[in-house]
Write a structure and sequence with these properties.
Blueprint (H helix, E strand, L loop, with lengths): L1 E6 L5 E7 L2 E6 L10 E2 L4 E3 L8 E3 L4 E4 L1 E6 L12 H10 L2 E6 L10 H11 L5 E4 L9 H5 L6 E5 L11 H14 L3 E4 L18 H5 L2 H18 L3 E3 L5 H9 L3 E4 L1 H5 L5 H4 L12 H13 L4 E2 L8 H4 L16 H10 L5 H15 L16 E11 L18 E10 L2 E5 L15 E2 L7 H14 L1
Helix pairs in contact: 4-6, 6-7
Amino acid sequence: MLIRNATLADGRRRDVRVAGERIEAVARRLPVTGEEANEDRTGTKSDRTGSSEKTLDATGKLLLPGMIDAHVHAREPGFPHKGSWTTLGRTAAAGGVTTVVDQPNTDPPTVDGASFDRKATLAERCLVDYGINGGVTPEWRSGELFDRPLFALGEVFLADSTGEMGIESDLFEDAVREASERGIAVTVHAEDASLFSEEARERTDADAWSAFRSAEAERAAIEQACAVGERCGAQLHVAHTSTPEGIDVASEQGMTCEVTPHHLFLSRADLEDLGTEGRMNPPLRSEARRKEVFERVVDGTVDIVATDHAPHTRAEKDAGIWDAPSGVPGVETALPLLLAAARRGELSYERIRDLTAANPAAIFDLPRKGRVESGKDADLVCVDPDGEEEIRGQTLHSSAGWTPFEGSEGVFPEWTMVRGQVVYKRTGAGQEDGEDASNECFGDPIGENVHSASKATEERRSIE
């Protein structure tokens, strides 16, 4: 495919040629290969005289590298009614996410070779590329896990969350040291349960959860985790930081961190409307803290945006604040929310590119991903930057069927490509003759484990 006149994140207008799984060339103007092509009524040029190259006019459209969501919960095995690898891949592709990284708190948890292998088999149903993290419990088998193509170790829970995988400090340090020796990054869920506010237990309002799992509990746990990381010489990544204080600690200690869309766009001020649909770990913070977190996302202190996509059904969420499960769906709405914020002038498209693609690729050693450059995987997302629309849970593709961002504005992809194959296309976007114009279109599952694929490629190159 030859993509004509696309606008990149930095504002340059470029032609982009895709050959096989890779981006072959990016230039001001690229010639059509082979014979002259004829343009059909949809804007897709198909050769009728010998050329095999299709040409798509992307004038006025934004072309971004696909989002690498370094923090999702596929829910399978164990809870397929909440979400499966099939539904995860579809909701990711529809949101412009081309790589997802699954966390270990499934049933069984991913803490040994057998559980990793079982999950890897299920993940073959995924529409987009994926990584699989390994978890830490007192029963984990580190040798078996580290012999598998792990994306990272974690999220390692310093306080219980869904799956009750919270561990003690000694085990945490042992796990971080062993991962460091193996050259594997460690992702940390940092909350100190000893600093949770027991007084909040007397309350039943929607804000009680935020009062219980305090901001101080996050800051203290990040300090503890960073100290362990420094002692062990480890690459530590702090998951879903929700406070400016926690972000600053991670940054000052030279560790990387992520922020979720719900901590970026929602606050405790929204809980009266959200109810238990606003319960997650760590919880929503004050509006003042939310604004400070947003500032750190804009100025570069925060390294990446990741969703902590954690779907539960509406029926499961329809419970009291102390009984409802923690977590919200988010993989499909993350990039659209950020693009809508850019349209409002709140951050730049270049910053979005770095937060969602370039930085995750650099942090987690994905050299073929993260940028629209020659030689990279053709993981591409095309959007109309002016195509803003209201987010509605009933039109999203998660099994949850709801979203905490109901009614917010989003800019959704027209099409999403993974390693040169279009896996998602909206009605009328580059539509070809004979295709049904009434529905969006999904491709076949082509997802690969990004780390095992990278390893295999390196081995082939070394042999050659």
